Amino acid sequence: MATQIYVNLPVKNLDKSVAFFTALGFKFNPQFTDENATCMIVGENIYVMLLVESYFKTFTPKTIADAKKSTEVLLCLSCDSRAEVDAQVAKAVAAGGGTPNKAQDHGFMYQHGFEDLDGHLWELAYMDMSAFPKS
Questions:
Q1: How many structural domains comprise the chain?
Q2: What pLDDT does residue 43 have?
Q3: I want to staple 97 with a disulfide (CB 3.0 to 4.6 A). Which of 69, 71, 80, 114 is the partner?
Q4: Which structural domain range is residue 45 located in?
C-alpha cells in the first residue's frame, strides 16, 4: 500500500472552511466527516483533515498557532499549468481568501498562492522541467 499523508489543520468554523475549499473544487470524504472534522481529498494519497480548534487541541498539549499572525507551515500543491495556478488563486479570493504575495515567475517555475479563511498559506506551483536551467 502506498504511503498516505494526512495534514491536520485547525479551523475556527468547519462549515465555512468546507464551503471555502468546495469553492476551490475540493471534495470531502463523508466517512471521515462530523461536527468536529472533515477529510478533504487533495490527491490519491493526500488528505487534509480540517479539525475544529477544540478537537485539534485533543491531539497536542501545545498551543495552537494563530496562522493569521504567524506561519506554522506552508502547504504547496503542484498544478498542471500557469493558468491552473491563476485560476485556483482567483477561486480562493472569490471565496473569501487572500493573496499575501504576488505571483512569481522563475522561468521554469511559476508560483502564486492564497491564504485560507484561517490564515493557512497555500502555495500553488507549475514547473516546466524543459525550461529548468541546465548545468
A1: 1
A2: 95
A3: 114
A4: 5-131
Return left, alpha or beta for 12; rule: phi > 0 is left, psi -120 to 50 is alpha, else beta.
Answer: alpha
Distances (CA, A) of 49 to 16, 101, 111, 112: 14, 25, 24, 23
Q: What is the mean pLDDT of each run of 10 residues along the chain (135 residues)?
A: 92 98 98 97 96 96 93 92 97 97 94 97 92 74
| Angle in degrees, CA 16, 19, 25, rounded to 5 | 150
pLDDT on residue 78? 94
- What CATH number does the domain containing 65 carry? 3.10.180.10
Closest C-alpha among 28, 6, 31 to residue 15: 28
Cβ atoms of 124 and 89 within 8 Å: the answer is yes
